[in-house]
């Protein structure tokens, strides 16, 4: 029979870190509670599955491009009561991903569009979906500087993921020359594959042709994006201005 150090060495060789990290605890629990072997063994296996799932989620988060782990539970819904709260929570169930549907979040700056998109994207990662989050204008400029080979790899990653988030589309009025064609390719390819896209934008869709410099291209993009799409309109006061005012008030009081 193996000693505990020998068992731990074998677990290391088998790359069973979840089992290795909790083995001694599980053994002591089993001895103290006089647990049957199969019950103890099932708990040990669950430890390994939990560790692997945790690592998978963290890896997908790191690969997603998200910089925050946001949740709808932490969002201040009372500040702007007119926000489409019910639809946001419906999207949070992720049923729209299974159905291959899209979501378009449009409205005033600072009203929570990006927050909601990020929270839904993070929930998708927690449910083992592959996610790509792009700050759209920054992505356009970075993509333009890549080599053709780098572009091909990047494009495939974006097209193949389960959920693509294009945040702050047309934040800048001017976009790179090839950005319109790139956007059309992304939307068209994902439409053919029935893979979901979330777009947030401060710009009303009627003006997209102006920013793209091509009304026909705008119509083509919107035709595919809006087919099987949830449209959410965000109105009200800016959270960022609220937070800035609170910061000024605290500093004034401190002084």
Task: Tell me what the structure shows.
Keywords: ATP-binding, Nucleotide-binding. This is DNA replication protein DnaC. With 255 residues, the chain is α/β, with parallel strands linked by helices. The chain contains 12 helices and 5 strands.
| Main sheet properties | 5 strands, parallel
- What is the 3D shape? elongated
Category from helices, strands and their pairing: alpha/beta
Radius of gyration: 24 Å
User: What are the secondary-structure elements, in order, as H or E?
Assistant: HHHHHEHEHHEHEHHEH
Overall number of strands: 5
Beta-strand percentage range: 5-15%
Low-confidence stretches: none
Give the count of helical stretches: 12
What is the CA-CA span between the terminal residues?
A: 71 Å
Strand order of the largest sheet: 2-3-4-1-5
Mean pLDDT: 86
- Work out the helicity level: 55-70%
Structure characteristics:
255 residues, alpha/beta, 5-stranded parallel sheet, 5 strands
Describe what is shown at a glance.
The chain is of the alpha/beta class and 255 residues long.
Write the layout of secondary structure elements.
Layout: H1 4-13, H2 17-33, H3 37-64, H4 85-92, H5 95-98, E1 102-107, H6 113-126, E2 131-135, H7 136-145, H8 148-160, E3 163-167, H9 179-193, E4 196-201, H10 208-212, H11 215-226, E5 229-234, H12 239-254
Parallel strand pairs: 1-4, 1-5, 2-3, 3-4
Helix pairs in contact: 2-3, 9-11
